[in-house]
Amino acid sequence: MSVRHLLAATAPAALSGGLGPAAPAVARVLAQPDPVGAYALTSGRLWSLVAAALGLAGVVVGGLALARATGRIGTGAGRRGSVAALAAGLIGAVVGGLVVAAAEGGPGTGYGIVGGYLALAVGLIAMALGGLALARSRRKRAPAVS
C-alpha cells in the first residue's frame, strides 16, 4: 500500500482527536507488503538472470566443444571448451538452485523463482553438453593409415 492509503486511513481519526480507532487500520495497511512491479529488477530476479546467462553461455560453449570433439568444426579437441561448459553449467545450476530455495513466493512475487528454474535447467543442459564433449575428446583417435 502507498502512503496515500495510510493517510486516508488515519486522517479521520486524527481529525476527531485521537488515533485510537485508527490503530487497527494503520496496522493492517503497514502489514501488507508492497506489490512488486512486473518490470522491477529485484535481487532475486538479478541473481536468476546472472545464473541463466551463465548457463546459456555454458550451453553455447558446450555445443561448440562438442562440435570440435566430433571433428565438425576446427582441428582442436575442444577440451578447454568442454571444461568451461562444465564449470559455467555447474555455477549456473547451483546459483539457480539457491534462488529457487530462497524464494518465498511463486511466480510474479519478485523472488526470481521462474528464472531460477530456468537457470537450473539450462545449467544442467550445459553440464551434459560439456561432459559429453569431454568424453568424446578423451577418446583415442585412430592413427591415420598412409
Describe the structure.
The chain is mostly helical. The chain has two domains: 1-34, no CATH class; 43-138. It is 68% helix and 0% strand. The chain has five helices and no strands. The chain has helices at 3-15, 23-31, 43-69, 79-102, 113-138. The longest helix is centred in the middle third of the chain and has 27 residues, at 43-69. The protein starts with a helix and ends in an 8-residue tail after the last helix. Mean pLDDT is 75; it is low at 1-7. InterPro entries: DUF6223. Keywords: Membrane, Transmembrane, Transmembrane helix. Pfam families: DUF6223. The chain crosses the membrane at residues 47-69, 81-103, 109-134.
How is this fold's topology laid out?
Blueprint lengths: L2 H13 L7 H9 L11 H27 L9 H24 L10 H26 L8
Helix pairs in contact: 1-2, 3-4, 3-5, 4-5
Observed structural traits:
146 residues, mainly alpha, 5 helices, 68% helix, transmembrane
Tally of separate domains: 2
Helix content: 55-70%
Q: What is the tally of beta strands?
A: 0
* Terminal-residue CA separation: 80 Å
Overall geometry comes to elongated
Strand content: under 5%
Could you give the order of the helices and strands? HHHHH
Structural class: mainly alpha
Summarize the structure.
With 146 residues, the chain is mainly α.
